[in-house]
From TrEMBL:
Signal peptide: 1-26
Domain Blue (type 1) copper intervals: 106-151
Record key words, sorted: Copper, Metal-binding, Oxidoreductase, Repeat, Signal
Name of this protein: Copper-containing nitrite reductase
Binding residue positions for Cu cation: 239, 244, 279-280, 288, 293, 436
Family statement drawn from the similarity comment of this UniProt entry: Belongs to the multicopper oxidase family.
GO molecular function: copper ion binding; electron transfer activity; nitrite reductase (NO-forming) activity
Amino acid sequence: MSIPIATARAALLAATLLTPLSMAAAAPPSPARPAASAAMMAHGVPNAVFTLRTGISQGKMVYIGKGGAIDGQVHPTLTAHKGDIVQITLINGEGAEHDLTVPDMHVVSQRVNGPGASSTLTFTAGNIGSFPYFCTIPGHRQAGMQSLIQVVPATPKEADKGVSIVRDPADMPPPVGERGPMTVRYDLEAIERVGRLADDTTYDFWTFNGKIPGPMLRVHVGDSVELHLKNAENSVMMHSIDLHAVSGPGGGAVLTQVGPGETKSFIFKALHPGLFVYHCATPMVSAHISNGMYGMILVEPVGGLPPVDNEFYVMQGELFTAEPNGHTGLQEFSFDKPMDERPEYFTFNGAVGPLTTEHPLHARAGDHVRIYFGVGGPNFTSSFHVIGTLFDRVYANGSLESPSLAGVQTISVPPGGSAIVDLTVPVPGKYIIVGHALTRMEKGLVGALIVDGKPRPDIFRANDNPNAKVHASP
Ligand SMILES: [Cu+2]
Protein backbone atom coordinates (compact mmCIF):
# COMPACT_ATOMS: atom_id res chain seq x y z
CA MET A 1 0.00 0.00 0.00
CA SER A 2 1.42 3.39 -0.90
CA ILE A 3 1.44 6.29 1.50
CA PRO A 4 -0.66 9.22 0.30
CA ILE A 5 1.55 12.12 -0.73
CA ALA A 6 -0.18 14.51 1.65
CA THR A 7 0.56 12.14 4.55
CA ALA A 8 4.18 11.80 3.51
CA ARG A 9 4.46 15.59 3.30
CA ALA A 10 2.93 15.99 6.74
CA ALA A 11 5.40 13.44 8.11
CA LEU A 12 8.27 15.32 6.54
CA LEU A 13 7.04 18.59 7.96
CA ALA A 14 6.79 17.04 11.37
CA ALA A 15 10.24 15.48 11.10
CA THR A 16 11.64 18.78 9.95
CA LEU A 17 10.07 21.12 12.34
CA LEU A 18 8.91 19.42 15.43
CA THR A 19 11.70 18.56 17.76
CA PRO A 20 11.68 15.22 19.53
CA LEU A 21 9.63 15.29 22.72
CA SER A 22 12.67 14.86 24.92
CA MET A 23 14.20 17.93 23.34
CA ALA A 24 10.99 19.93 23.48
CA ALA A 25 10.67 19.19 27.20
CA ALA A 26 14.03 20.80 27.79
CA ALA A 27 13.08 23.90 25.83
CA PRO A 28 10.58 26.24 27.45
CA PRO A 29 8.74 28.12 24.70
CA SER A 30 9.70 31.76 24.48
CA PRO A 31 6.68 33.94 25.23
CA ALA A 32 7.48 36.27 22.34
CA ARG A 33 7.96 33.56 19.72
CA PRO A 34 6.17 30.38 20.77
CA ALA A 35 7.41 26.97 19.70
CA ALA A 36 6.87 26.04 16.08
CA SER A 37 3.91 24.01 14.96
CA ALA A 38 3.57 22.10 11.71
CA ALA A 39 0.64 24.25 10.66
CA MET A 40 2.62 27.40 11.17
CA MET A 41 5.66 26.14 9.32
CA ALA A 42 3.61 25.16 6.33
CA HIS A 43 3.84 28.85 5.51
CA GLY A 44 7.45 29.48 6.56
CA VAL A 45 8.88 31.32 9.53
CA PRO A 46 6.48 33.96 10.89
CA ASN A 47 7.61 37.57 10.89
CA ALA A 48 4.58 39.20 12.53
CA VAL A 49 4.09 37.49 15.89
CA PHE A 50 1.41 38.33 18.46
CA THR A 51 0.22 36.84 21.73
CA LEU A 52 -3.25 37.53 23.12
CA ARG A 53 -4.46 36.53 26.57
CA THR A 54 -8.13 36.25 27.41
CA GLY A 55 -9.38 37.95 30.55
CA ILE A 56 -12.06 39.99 32.24
CA SER A 57 -11.91 43.77 32.18
CA GLN A 58 -14.64 46.00 33.64
CA GLY A 59 -16.94 43.00 33.77
CA LYS A 60 -16.44 42.11 30.11
CA MET A 61 -14.61 39.27 28.37
CA VAL A 62 -11.59 40.64 26.54
CA TYR A 63 -8.49 39.84 24.54
CA ILE A 64 -5.41 41.53 26.07
CA GLY A 65 -2.12 41.97 24.22
CA LYS A 66 0.88 40.21 25.75
CA GLY A 67 4.43 41.30 24.90
CA GLY A 68 5.70 43.63 22.20
CA ALA A 69 3.95 46.86 21.14
CA ILE A 70 0.49 45.58 22.13
CA ASP A 71 1.45 44.61 25.69
CA GLY A 72 -1.42 45.32 28.07
CA GLN A 73 -3.76 46.71 25.40
CA VAL A 74 -7.37 45.55 25.52
CA HIS A 75 -8.61 44.33 22.12
CA PRO A 76 -5.45 45.51 20.36
CA THR A 77 -5.39 46.21 16.66
CA LEU A 78 -2.77 43.88 15.20
CA THR A 79 -0.70 45.47 12.43
CA ALA A 80 1.13 43.43 9.77
CA HIS A 81 2.69 44.18 6.40
CA LYS A 82 1.35 42.67 3.20
CA GLY A 83 3.14 39.38 2.64
CA ASP A 84 3.97 38.88 6.32
CA ILE A 85 3.47 35.48 7.86
CA VAL A 86 1.31 36.29 10.87
CA GLN A 87 1.27 34.11 13.95
CA ILE A 88 -1.22 34.66 16.77
CA THR A 89 -0.99 32.68 19.99
CA LEU A 90 -4.08 32.69 22.16
CA ILE A 91 -3.60 31.98 25.87
CA ASN A 92 -6.49 31.38 28.20
CA GLY A 93 -6.12 33.85 31.07
CA GLU A 94 -9.26 33.40 33.11
CA GLY A 95 -10.60 29.89 32.47
CA ALA A 96 -13.72 30.25 30.31
CA GLU A 97 -13.71 28.60 26.87
CA HIS A 98 -12.56 30.81 23.97
CA ASP A 99 -11.08 30.72 20.51
CA LEU A 100 -10.03 33.21 17.84
CA THR A 101 -10.99 33.38 14.18
CA VAL A 102 -10.05 35.63 11.29
CA PRO A 103 -12.73 34.70 8.74
CA ASP A 104 -11.14 36.73 5.95
CA MET A 105 -7.97 34.66 6.32
CA HIS A 106 -9.92 31.38 6.61
CA VAL A 107 -8.35 30.52 9.96
CA VAL A 108 -9.74 29.60 13.35
CA SER A 109 -7.77 28.53 16.41
CA GLN A 110 -8.51 25.49 18.51
CA ARG A 111 -10.63 26.26 21.58
CA VAL A 112 -8.67 27.03 24.72
CA ASN A 113 -10.35 25.74 27.83
CA GLY A 114 -8.99 26.30 31.34
CA PRO A 115 -6.35 28.74 32.58
CA GLY A 116 -3.04 28.52 30.73
CA ALA A 117 -4.38 26.54 27.75
CA SER A 118 -3.08 27.93 24.47
CA SER A 119 -3.46 27.60 20.73
CA THR A 120 -1.59 29.12 17.81
CA LEU A 121 -2.77 30.02 14.34
CA THR A 122 -0.80 31.22 11.37
CA PHE A 123 -1.67 32.78 8.04
CA THR A 124 -0.19 34.93 5.33
CA ALA A 125 -1.34 38.55 5.18
CA GLY A 126 -2.10 38.45 1.48
CA ASN A 127 -4.25 41.57 1.05
CA ILE A 128 -4.13 45.12 2.32
CA GLY A 129 -7.07 46.13 4.51
CA SER A 130 -8.74 45.78 7.91
CA PHE A 131 -9.98 42.36 8.88
CA PRO A 132 -11.97 41.50 12.01
CA TYR A 133 -10.85 38.85 14.45
CA PHE A 134 -13.17 37.57 17.18
CA CYS A 135 -14.22 34.68 19.43
CA THR A 136 -16.73 32.24 17.91
CA ILE A 137 -18.20 31.02 21.22
CA PRO A 138 -21.86 32.13 21.10
CA GLY A 139 -22.30 35.55 22.68
CA HIS A 140 -18.59 36.30 23.18
CA ARG A 141 -18.15 38.51 20.11
CA GLN A 142 -21.24 40.46 21.10
CA ALA A 143 -19.81 40.72 24.62
CA GLY A 144 -16.79 42.51 23.22
CA MET A 145 -14.28 39.87 22.14
CA GLN A 146 -13.40 41.36 18.78
CA SER A 147 -10.93 43.69 17.14
CA LEU A 148 -9.05 44.19 13.85
CA ILE A 149 -6.01 43.02 11.97
CA GLN A 150 -4.67 45.82 9.85
CA VAL A 151 -2.59 44.81 6.83
CA VAL A 152 -0.56 47.74 5.50
CA PRO A 153 1.64 47.92 2.38
CA ALA A 154 4.97 46.14 2.56
CA THR A 155 7.89 48.20 3.78
CA PRO A 156 9.85 50.08 1.10
CA LYS A 157 12.27 47.92 -0.88
CA GLU A 158 15.36 49.58 0.62
CA ALA A 159 14.43 48.39 4.08
CA ASP A 160 13.88 44.88 2.74
CA LYS A 161 17.38 44.42 1.39
CA GLY A 162 18.44 42.77 4.60
CA VAL A 163 21.70 42.69 6.51
CA SER A 164 24.74 40.90 5.17
CA ILE A 165 25.15 37.37 6.50
CA VAL A 166 28.37 36.87 4.55
CA ARG A 167 31.53 36.08 6.47
CA ASP A 168 34.51 37.97 5.07
CA PRO A 169 36.81 35.23 3.73
CA ALA A 170 39.73 37.13 5.27
CA ASP A 171 38.15 36.58 8.71
CA MET A 172 40.67 33.94 9.82
CA PRO A 173 42.08 33.55 13.32
CA PRO A 174 45.90 33.67 13.46
CA PRO A 175 47.99 30.48 13.41
CA VAL A 176 48.17 28.64 16.72
CA GLY A 177 51.98 28.68 16.69
CA GLU A 178 54.45 26.46 18.49
CA ARG A 179 52.96 25.30 21.76
CA GLY A 180 51.87 22.19 23.58
CA PRO A 181 48.25 21.02 24.00
CA MET A 182 45.95 23.14 26.14
CA THR A 183 42.24 23.68 26.82
CA VAL A 184 40.60 26.15 24.44
CA ARG A 185 37.13 27.60 25.00
CA TYR A 186 34.78 28.57 22.16
CA ASP A 187 31.35 30.20 22.52
CA LEU A 188 29.02 29.82 19.57
CA GLU A 189 25.49 31.17 19.23
CA ALA A 190 22.75 29.90 16.93
CA ILE A 191 21.15 33.01 15.43
CA GLU A 192 18.19 33.08 13.05
CA ARG A 193 18.10 36.28 11.01
CA VAL A 194 16.70 37.64 7.78
CA GLY A 195 19.62 38.58 5.57
CA ARG A 196 20.53 39.46 2.02
CA LEU A 197 20.67 36.51 -0.36
CA ALA A 198 20.99 38.61 -3.53
CA ASP A 199 20.08 42.13 -4.67
CA ASP A 200 16.47 42.72 -3.58
CA THR A 201 16.21 39.13 -2.33
CA THR A 202 16.26 38.14 1.34
CA TYR A 203 16.03 34.88 3.22
CA ASP A 204 15.52 33.83 6.84
CA PHE A 205 18.96 32.32 7.41
CA TRP A 206 19.96 30.17 10.38
CA THR A 207 23.57 30.79 11.36
CA PHE A 208 26.35 30.24 13.84
CA ASN A 209 27.20 33.71 15.22
CA GLY A 210 25.17 35.56 12.58
CA LYS A 211 27.39 34.88 9.56
CA ILE A 212 27.87 32.14 6.98
CA PRO A 213 29.97 30.15 7.41
CA GLY A 214 30.21 30.13 11.21
CA PRO A 215 33.53 31.29 12.68
CA MET A 216 36.68 29.33 11.88
CA LEU A 217 37.80 27.58 15.05
CA ARG A 218 41.56 27.02 15.22
CA VAL A 219 43.23 24.68 17.68
CA HIS A 220 46.30 22.46 18.04
CA VAL A 221 46.21 18.68 17.81
CA GLY A 222 45.85 17.31 21.33
CA ASP A 223 43.96 20.38 22.57
CA SER A 224 40.84 19.93 24.65
CA VAL A 225 38.07 22.09 23.26
CA GLU A 226 35.40 23.38 25.66
CA LEU A 227 32.55 24.28 23.36
CA HIS A 228 29.55 26.30 24.54
CA LEU A 229 26.54 26.51 22.23
CA LYS A 230 23.87 29.10 22.99
CA ASN A 231 20.60 29.34 21.10
CA ALA A 232 19.45 32.97 20.85
CA GLU A 233 16.38 33.99 22.90
CA ASN A 234 14.42 34.95 19.78
CA SER A 235 15.07 31.72 17.88
CA VAL A 236 12.11 29.68 16.70
CA MET A 237 13.97 26.39 16.20
CA MET A 238 16.19 24.16 18.32
CA HIS A 239 19.81 23.90 17.16
CA SER A 240 22.95 21.88 17.93
CA ILE A 241 26.49 21.27 16.70
CA ASP A 242 28.26 18.25 15.22
CA LEU A 243 31.98 18.80 14.61
CA HIS A 244 33.78 16.31 12.42
CA ALA A 245 36.89 16.81 14.56
CA VAL A 246 35.12 15.15 17.51
CA SER A 247 35.53 11.49 18.44
CA GLY A 248 32.24 10.81 20.24
CA PRO A 249 28.53 10.16 19.51
CA GLY A 250 26.95 12.64 17.14
CA GLY A 251 30.16 14.67 17.02
CA GLY A 252 28.70 16.54 19.99
CA ALA A 253 25.15 16.87 18.65
CA VAL A 254 23.68 14.55 21.31
CA LEU A 255 25.03 16.85 24.03
CA THR A 256 24.12 20.19 22.48
CA GLN A 257 20.44 20.17 21.44
CA VAL A 258 19.47 23.64 22.68
CA GLY A 259 16.07 25.32 22.71
CA PRO A 260 15.65 29.10 22.37
CA GLY A 261 17.51 30.89 25.18
CA GLU A 262 19.33 27.74 26.32
CA THR A 263 23.08 27.06 26.45
CA LYS A 264 24.78 23.66 26.55
CA SER A 265 28.44 22.74 26.61
CA PHE A 266 30.72 19.78 26.06
CA ILE A 267 34.44 19.07 25.94
CA PHE A 268 36.28 17.06 23.32
CA LYS A 269 39.88 16.26 22.58
CA ALA A 270 41.10 17.01 19.03
CA LEU A 271 42.87 13.73 18.26
CA HIS A 272 43.62 14.29 14.56
CA PRO A 273 45.07 17.26 12.71
CA GLY A 274 43.09 18.41 9.67
CA LEU A 275 40.43 20.82 8.42
CA PHE A 276 37.00 19.65 9.54
CA VAL A 277 33.44 20.77 8.87
CA TYR A 278 31.00 21.49 11.68
CA HIS A 279 27.25 21.86 11.24
CA CYS A 280 23.95 21.90 13.07
CA ALA A 281 22.52 18.41 13.54
CA THR A 282 18.93 19.05 14.60
CA PRO A 283 16.23 17.34 12.50
CA MET A 284 15.71 17.87 9.64
CA VAL A 285 19.49 18.24 9.54
CA SER A 286 19.69 19.01 5.83
CA ALA A 287 17.35 22.00 6.31
CA HIS A 288 19.49 23.41 9.14
CA ILE A 289 22.62 23.01 7.00
CA SER A 290 21.01 24.47 3.89
CA ASN A 291 19.77 27.46 5.88
CA GLY A 292 23.37 28.30 6.78
CA MET A 293 24.42 26.34 9.86
CA TYR A 294 27.92 25.19 8.92
CA GLY A 295 31.52 26.23 9.47
CA MET A 296 34.95 24.65 9.97
CA ILE A 297 37.53 23.87 12.63
CA LEU A 298 41.22 23.72 11.75
CA VAL A 299 43.21 21.36 13.95
CA GLU A 300 46.84 22.29 13.33
CA PRO A 301 49.48 19.57 13.32
CA VAL A 302 52.49 19.60 15.63
CA GLY A 303 54.71 22.40 14.32
CA GLY A 304 51.80 24.05 12.46
CA LEU A 305 51.32 24.47 8.72
CA PRO A 306 53.94 26.09 6.45
CA PRO A 307 53.46 29.86 6.80
CA VAL A 308 51.81 31.82 3.94
CA ASP A 309 51.14 35.49 3.18
CA ASN A 310 47.32 35.38 3.00
CA GLU A 311 44.79 32.97 4.43
CA PHE A 312 41.13 32.79 3.36
CA TYR A 313 38.03 30.89 4.47
CA VAL A 314 35.43 29.89 1.87
CA MET A 315 32.50 27.46 2.03
CA GLN A 316 29.99 26.27 -0.53
CA GLY A 317 26.28 25.95 0.26
CA GLU A 318 22.91 25.35 -1.38
CA LEU A 319 19.55 27.03 -0.81
CA PHE A 320 16.16 25.60 -1.66
CA THR A 321 13.68 28.45 -2.09
CA ALA A 322 10.05 27.94 -3.03
CA GLU A 323 10.29 30.60 -5.75
CA PRO A 324 12.82 30.26 -8.57
CA ASN A 325 16.30 31.80 -8.54
CA GLY A 326 16.11 35.54 -9.12
CA HIS A 327 12.73 36.10 -7.46
CA THR A 328 12.81 39.25 -5.31
CA GLY A 329 11.56 39.81 -1.77
CA LEU A 330 11.69 37.48 1.22
CA GLN A 331 12.09 33.89 0.03
CA GLU A 332 10.64 30.87 1.79
CA PHE A 333 12.19 27.45 2.24
CA SER A 334 10.84 24.80 -0.15
CA PHE A 335 10.03 21.37 1.23
CA ASP A 336 9.97 19.59 -2.13
CA LYS A 337 13.20 20.78 -3.67
CA PRO A 338 15.59 19.40 -1.00
CA MET A 339 14.09 15.94 -1.42
CA ASP A 340 14.58 16.19 -5.18
CA GLU A 341 18.06 17.74 -4.67
CA ARG A 342 17.10 20.78 -6.76
CA PRO A 343 18.73 23.85 -5.18
CA GLU A 344 17.74 27.24 -6.57
CA TYR A 345 20.98 28.82 -5.32
CA PHE A 346 24.59 27.74 -4.93
CA THR A 347 26.58 30.05 -2.69
CA PHE A 348 30.06 30.90 -1.50
CA ASN A 349 29.86 32.19 2.09
CA GLY A 350 26.09 32.21 2.18
CA ALA A 351 24.88 34.52 -0.60
CA VAL A 352 24.94 35.15 -4.34
CA GLY A 353 28.39 36.27 -5.48
CA PRO A 354 29.53 38.18 -2.34
CA LEU A 355 33.13 37.17 -2.94
CA THR A 356 33.10 39.17 -6.19
CA THR A 357 31.42 42.30 -4.82
CA GLU A 358 31.37 42.70 -1.07
CA HIS A 359 34.42 40.66 -0.07
CA PRO A 360 36.77 39.68 -2.92
CA LEU A 361 39.96 37.93 -1.86
CA HIS A 362 43.01 40.24 -2.16
CA ALA A 363 46.68 39.33 -2.62
CA ARG A 364 49.86 40.68 -4.19
CA ALA A 365 51.54 39.04 -7.14
CA GLY A 366 53.88 36.36 -5.89
CA ASP A 367 52.20 36.04 -2.49
CA HIS A 368 51.67 32.59 -1.08
CA VAL A 369 47.90 32.30 -0.72
CA ARG A 370 46.05 29.61 1.22
CA ILE A 371 42.32 28.93 0.96
CA TYR A 372 40.59 26.80 3.57
CA PHE A 373 37.69 25.49 1.52
CA GLY A 374 34.76 23.38 2.70
CA VAL A 375 31.33 22.25 1.58
CA GLY A 376 28.39 22.69 3.93
CA GLY A 377 26.02 21.50 1.23
CA PRO A 378 23.89 19.69 2.17
CA ASN A 379 24.15 17.63 -1.01
CA PHE A 380 26.47 18.74 -3.79
CA THR A 381 30.14 17.92 -4.27
CA SER A 382 32.24 20.92 -5.26
CA SER A 383 34.80 20.94 -8.08
CA PHE A 384 36.78 23.79 -6.58
CA HIS A 385 38.83 25.75 -9.11
CA VAL A 386 40.43 29.17 -9.52
CA ILE A 387 40.34 30.22 -13.17
CA GLY A 388 43.76 31.26 -14.49
CA THR A 389 45.95 29.47 -12.00
CA LEU A 390 46.40 26.11 -10.38
CA PHE A 391 47.08 24.92 -6.89
CA ASP A 392 50.77 24.50 -5.96
CA ARG A 393 49.74 22.25 -3.11
CA VAL A 394 46.49 20.61 -2.02
CA TYR A 395 45.73 18.91 1.24
CA ALA A 396 42.95 16.78 -0.22
CA ASN A 397 39.95 16.03 2.00
CA GLY A 398 41.41 18.45 4.53
CA SER A 399 43.75 15.68 5.68
CA LEU A 400 46.95 16.80 7.37
CA GLU A 401 48.02 13.21 8.05
CA SER A 402 48.38 12.26 4.36
CA PRO A 403 50.89 13.44 1.75
CA SER A 404 49.77 16.61 -0.04
CA LEU A 405 49.25 16.84 -3.82
CA ALA A 406 51.14 19.24 -6.11
CA GLY A 407 50.13 20.99 -9.35
CA VAL A 408 46.36 20.45 -9.13
CA GLN A 409 43.86 22.21 -11.42
CA THR A 410 40.55 21.29 -9.72
CA ILE A 411 39.91 19.59 -6.40
CA SER A 412 36.80 17.59 -5.64
CA VAL A 413 35.32 18.31 -2.21
CA PRO A 414 32.32 16.32 -0.96
CA PRO A 415 29.54 17.65 1.29
CA GLY A 416 30.81 17.64 4.85
CA GLY A 417 34.36 17.66 3.47
CA SER A 418 37.14 20.13 2.88
CA ALA A 419 40.44 20.88 1.18
CA ILE A 420 43.31 23.21 1.95
CA VAL A 421 44.74 24.71 -1.24
CA ASP A 422 47.94 26.74 -1.58
CA LEU A 423 48.54 28.86 -4.64
CA THR A 424 50.98 31.50 -5.85
CA VAL A 425 49.84 33.90 -8.55
CA PRO A 426 52.77 35.64 -10.26
CA VAL A 427 50.69 37.63 -12.76
CA PRO A 428 48.42 40.44 -11.50
CA GLY A 429 44.73 40.51 -12.43
CA LYS A 430 41.35 39.15 -11.51
CA TYR A 431 41.05 35.40 -10.98
CA ILE A 432 37.56 33.97 -10.85
CA ILE A 433 36.79 31.40 -8.14
CA VAL A 434 34.24 28.77 -9.13
CA GLY A 435 33.01 25.27 -8.80
CA HIS A 436 33.90 23.87 -12.20
CA ALA A 437 30.37 22.48 -12.56
CA LEU A 438 29.92 25.86 -14.21
CA THR A 439 26.15 26.13 -14.56
CA ARG A 440 26.23 26.76 -10.81
CA MET A 441 27.85 30.12 -11.58
CA GLU A 442 24.45 31.18 -12.92
CA LYS A 443 22.93 30.19 -9.59
CA GLY A 444 25.30 32.34 -7.53
CA LEU A 445 28.49 30.29 -7.13
CA VAL A 446 31.27 32.72 -8.03
CA GLY A 447 34.03 34.67 -6.31
CA ALA A 448 37.17 36.57 -7.21
CA LEU A 449 40.81 36.73 -6.18
CA ILE A 450 42.18 40.18 -7.02
CA VAL A 451 45.96 40.16 -7.43
CA ASP A 452 47.87 43.47 -7.51
CA GLY A 453 51.42 43.88 -8.75
CA LYS A 454 53.67 44.47 -11.75
CA PRO A 455 52.88 42.81 -15.09
CA ARG A 456 54.92 39.70 -15.89
CA PRO A 457 55.22 39.58 -19.70
CA ASP A 458 57.74 36.79 -19.31
CA ILE A 459 54.88 34.60 -18.10
CA PHE A 460 51.76 36.06 -19.73
CA ARG A 461 51.30 38.67 -22.45
CA ALA A 462 49.24 39.50 -25.52
CA ASN A 463 50.81 38.61 -28.83
CA ASP A 464 51.15 41.98 -30.60
CA ASN A 465 52.45 40.48 -33.82
CA PRO A 466 50.52 37.31 -34.49
CA ASN A 467 51.87 36.93 -38.04
CA ALA A 468 55.54 36.94 -37.03
CA LYS A 469 57.47 33.78 -37.72
CA VAL A 470 57.57 31.65 -34.62
CA HIS A 471 61.10 30.73 -33.62
CA ALA A 472 60.32 27.16 -32.90
CA SER A 473 57.28 25.00 -33.33
CA PRO A 474 56.71 21.38 -32.54
CU1 LIG B 1 20.04 24.32 13.61
